[in-house]
Amino acid sequence: MNDTTSLPALPDRLAINSRSPHHVAEVFEHDIRILINGKERFDVEEYCISEGWIKVASHKALDRRGQPLLVMVKGTVEAFYR
Predict the structure, then answer these.
(1) Which of 18, 28, 41, 65 is the most exposed place for a label (fewest CB within 10 A)?
(2) What is the DSSP letter of 28?
(3) What gap in Å lies between CA 31 and CA 80, rounded to an integer?
(4) Is 57 exposed, middle or buried (0-12, 13-18, 19+ CB in 10 A)?
């Protein structure tokens, strides 16, 4: 038996929110890790590798739809499967 599971390619921009046009459901079937400036982050809501930023949810602030406000953190972004 060949147990070869091919992982889908990670896109340049990916969002957790399913309403976003940058959401790719096939990628979330696997464990993804994000590094920003060499440090692993576990609270990333959205990332863009080519532009060098991630978005993380603020702790208490909500927008008018009740969703957490996203704060942009800039740096060198790396995404990979675990």
Answers:
(1) 65
(2) G
(3) 9
(4) middle
